[in-house]
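Bumping with the actual sequence this time:
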Amino acid sequence: MLELLVFLNQRRDVLQPTEYGKAAAVRGVIKFNDIKTFYVKWGDLIGRLSVFFTAILLLNTIAKSLKKEK
């Protein structure tokens, strides 16, 4: 199985693109980044907040529908 291979830098710039469907080897130097990203600092905070607010909205909707029935 042949795939498109690319070599990316820290800013996701394509440095060594290859042609699709042709065998190729890519070689480069990887520079590590010391800057901590939002995800490294806070983890899956956005996902947890989304689940929390979805649960609140769902409970609110259920409470309103039960209140209308009475």
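The tokens above came from a reply further down the thread. The mean pLDDT is 82.
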